[in-house]
Specification:
It is a single chain. The chain is elongated, with a radius of gyration of 13 Å. The chain has three helices and no strands. The longest helix has 19 residues. The protein has one domain. By secondary structure, the protein is an all-alpha fold.
Length: 55
Amino acid sequence: LDLALLNAGAAILVAGGAEDLAAGIERARESVAGGAATTVLEKLVERSRALAGSG
């Protein structure tokens, strides 16, 4: 989980969603703890399956 938070924190930082890496990691941690990350993953899986079926 630590490596996933580091990667997500870096992505948040690069996207402009945090002022520094520590803040990005904290935002990632909050997303995981609050369930937001799971919701986004479920939507991604749903969309990927829909696209795979339309090809």
